Amino acid sequence: MNTQTTTYTAFSGSILIATGQPTELAIKIKLIPKTTENILIFNDRTGLQTDLDLSGTELEIQQRYSGPEPAKKVGRPKLGVISREITLQKKHWDWLDQQSSSASALIRKLIDKELNDPSSESNIMLAKQSTDRFMSAMLGNMPNYEEATRALYQGDQTKFLKMIQDYPKDIKEYLASKTRHIF
Questions:
Q1: Maximum CA pair distance of the chain?
Q2: CB-side exposure of 82: number of CA atoms within 13 Å?
Q3: Is residue 88 helix, strand or coil?
Q4: Domains of the chain, residue spans
Q5: What is the pTM of this model?
Q6: Residue 14: is it exposed, middle or buried by C-beta count within 10 angstroms (0-12/13-18/19+)?
Q7: Of the chain's two ends, which shows fewer C-beta atoms within 10 Å, N or C?
Q8: Nearest to 69, CA basis, from 58, 60, 80
Q9: For 30-81, how does the pLDDT look when each residue is reduced to its tens digit (9 = 90+)?
Q10: What distance in Å separates the CA atoms of residue 38 and residue 48, rounded to the nearest whole number?
Q11: pLDDT band at residue 4 under the 50/70/90 scheme
Q12: Which residues contact 175 (CB under 8 A, 6 or more apart)?
């Protein structure tokens, strides 16, 4: 998807309670009075469920989730560069050699272009998979779940919206937001 900072969304049952980066989300959740429903937290980019450690004070939570990423030892760690190898055919190397930029710079530019294009084929598939993960966790036992999932992968927005129309408001709105570039 895009290269922006990843956000997370928390639900208590079918109620959306907060969205944000881990630090702010953990603090918001910690301040919520105990609920009878479990709080589920989803990575908005991948749709995967995650847990946040809410123990300690607000300052401890901020330190826990705002700390620097551990640096990799290979490449240029201060710049976030990780050294790896790729294998290309001769025709690919020939094409790269004809470009005005270095092979690495050109490959980074092509990848960044793809990452930042929400309507690219690969990003649409990633968005579908992310939405599917969320739906499986939140709606797996709901009526029309399987039909909604089929419509999602078929790219049938009309049928998808029809299948989710009776779902709880917050979940329906979250799904509409997650699928805005899919259809």
A1: 63
A2: 5
A3: coil
A4: 8-66, 85-115, 121-178
A5: 0.77
A6: middle
A7: C
A8: 80
A9: 988 887 778 999 999 999 999 999 999 999 999 998 866 555 555 666 777 7
A10: 16
A11: low
A12: 131, 134, 135, 164, 167
